[in-house]
Amino acid sequence: MQDETILEITDLNICFEMREGTVNAVNGVNFSVKPGEVLGIVGESGSGKSLSARSIMNLLPRNATVTNGSVKFRKSDGEVVDILAEKRESRKMRELRGGHVGMIFQEPMTALSPVHSIGKQIMTTLSLHTDLSKKAQVERAADLLAMVQMPKPMEMLKKYPHQLSGGMRQRAMIAMALSCNPSLLLADEPTTALDVTTEAQILDLIMSLQDELNMAVIFITHNFGVVAEIADRVSVMYLGNAVETAAVDDIFYNPKHPYTRALLQSIPRLDGQKRRRLQTIEGMVPDPFNLPTGCVFHTRCAEKMAGKCTSQIPELTYFENDQMARCHLHQA
Amino acid sequence: MAGYIAHRLLWSIPTLIVITIATFVIIQLPPGDYVTAYIAELVETGEVIDAETAAHIRHEFGLDRPMYEQFLTWIGGILLHGDFGLSLDWKLPVSELIWDRIGLTLLISMLSLLMTWAIAIPIGVYSATRQYSFLDHLFTVLGFLGRGIPDFLLALVLMWMGFLYFNFHVGGLFSPAYENAPWSFAKFGDLLSHLWVPVLVLSTGGAAGLLRIMRANMLEELGKPYVETAYAQGLSERQVVWRYPVRVALNPFISTVGWALPALISGDVITAVVLNLPTTGPLLLRSLQNQDMYLAGGFILILSVFTIIGTLLSDILLVLTDPRIRHS
Amino acid sequence: MSEQTLSDTAVEPAVEVKENSSYTAKPLTLMWWRFKKHKLALWSLGVIILLYLVAAFAGFLAPYDPFKHNRLHPFVPPQSIHLFSEDGTFQGPFVYGLKRQRDPETARLSFEEDTSKINRIRFFVEGDKYKFWGLVPTKLRLFGVEGRRNRIYILGTDKLGRDLFSRLVYGARVTLSVGLIGVFFSFVIGITLGSLAGLIGGTIDTVIQRMAELVRSIPTIPLWLGLAAALPVNWDPILVYLLITVILALIGWTNLARVVRGHFMTIRNQDFVLAARLSGASKTRIVTRHMLPSMTSYVIAAISLAIPEMILGETALSFLGLGLRPPVISWGVLLQDAQNLRSIALAPWLLIPGVAIVVTILAFNFLGDGLRDAADPYQK
Ligand SMILES: Nc1ncnc2c1ncn2[C@@H]1O[C@H](COP(=O)(O)OP(=O)(O)OP(=O)(O)O)[C@@H](O)[C@H]1O
Ligand code: SF4
Ligand SMILES: [Mg+2]
Question: Full-prediction pTM beyond 0.90?
Answer without folding.
Answer: no
